[in-house]
Write a structure and sequence with these properties.
homodimer, mainly alpha, Serine Threonine Protein Phosphatase 5, Tetratricopeptide repeat, Potassium Channel Kv1.1, Chain A
């Protein structure tokens, strides 16, 4: 027989689908691709001009809010470093974050003054944060993903949190698994936590030699206990599964 | 052989794909579906609260612009009917329409006054228009699709125009084909034009009896000429194709 997809000959044992199902599947694929094109067009339409984009003229942008970053470590004299600020629109922040919404729709200090102080964040990270709120896009590296996930959690921007967590999960490796595990715990990042924990359990033999392990025992021994508990559960389950397959 | 998709038996002549291609296609479908989910989440994130939505409190919405509809037919005394107005944000209008962008970023009357008059449109249509600019969504009927397509063309909101045109194209039938053909001509709606023209050509026998045909001959005979030209081209092509298949 000849495969209608790859055009190569195959034996009866290597048969996949009948003609009808092959045609249906091709149609489905075409439909899904068309749907993707439609959705992409919608996204392009909904994306706003970012006020931190070079091409955007802030003078004419009618922003009605300033975000001030407060990064103690970067400032020599004061704990609060007010300049430069990132301009934004109330309407956008209200749409994107329930925390900003509560802040700006109720008569709070931030709403009256038109200024929001964002603590423990650098100017660059704040710019990327605002850019994402307007465009749903940002080019991540591992540090930026960490920083933005923390901000996203604080301001309940779920979509950004999921975006960063997905990126970080794809970057988990033996060297950073313990750090990512602890980070995921602190910030309720379940998907990242599972990926990191799984990798840690795959390398239990060398766990206790690692510097980050020793640090974690010092800082937060409960998290270490959870690693051992998960490992134990896995061992028990594996043993039970083995027993099951060995049964006559 | 057994089809891995529908689980039914089939003969050699009805073979579709080999096993490998079947598995690849299944994976591709899963990937496309995941991509669709991601895109939908992005759209949900990017969608803004609409200022014409009942759930939206305009008092706290920080809108900085009013759209005034001017529908002469609805107003008994004056040609311009200023009330009620639809509130909006400059930033959103600038992002969605190059016409609004030019209007609001240059020191034009509309930018200074914070008021934009939208002519020849009812209050309801204007509300739907603004709603779409914020959410990329609107529930269309045929009249609304016409009205919004006209507005979308005027303000160069391409995505809305395509949205309305797609809807109208799906609604073309024998009764409205001539009207839709003329409408599509006036508003450069190529897809709609082709669909309407194709249906008109499929029913040439009854064309000249139709009331809308007679009206079109009166109003815009050039459009009628174009119908006949297209019909002639189609006849010539069909004849040529027939000749080709009849050749030995």
């Amino acid at each position: 027989m000849w495969c209608q997809s790859c055009r190569e000959e195959y034996e009866e044992g290597d048969a996949g689908t009948c003609k009808e199902c092959y045609e249906e599947a091709s149609e489905t694929e075409e439909e899904l691709k068309r749907e993707i094109e439609d959705l992409k067009a919608k996204i392009a339409f909904l994306r706003l001009c970012s006020p931190v984009d070079g091409a955007y003229s802030v003078s004419s942008s009618s922003t009605d809010l300033l975000l001030l970053h407060a990064a103690p470590l970067e400032c020599s004299s004061a704990a609060f470093c007010p300049s430069p600020a990132v301009p934004a629109h109330r309407a956008v922040l209200i749409s994107r974050s329930p925390v900003f919404k509560a802040m700006l729709e109720n008569e709070m200090e931030e709403s009256r003054s038109g200024m929001i102080k964002i603590h423990d964040v650098s100017y660059d990270v704040l710019r990327y944060f605002v850019h994402f709120l307007y465009t749903a896009e940002v080019l991540l590296d591992e540090q930026l993903a960490c920083d933005l996930l923390v901000l996203a959690e604080k301001y309940q921007v779920k979509h950004l949190k999921a975006f960063c967590e997905k990126f970080m999960t794809s970057k988990v490796n033996n060297d950073n698994a313990i750090a990512h595990y602890a980070f995921a715990h602190r910030h309720n990042a379940k998907q990242l936590l599972e990926a990191a924990l799984s990798l840690i359990m795959d390398n239990m033999a060398t766990l206790t030699e690692r510097e980050e392990y020793k640090e974690l025992v010092e800082k937060d021994p409960r998290l270490v206990v959870e690693i051992y508990e998960a490992y134990l559960t896995r061992q028990v389950n594996t043993a039970a599964a083995k027993d099951l397959t060995l049964q006559p």
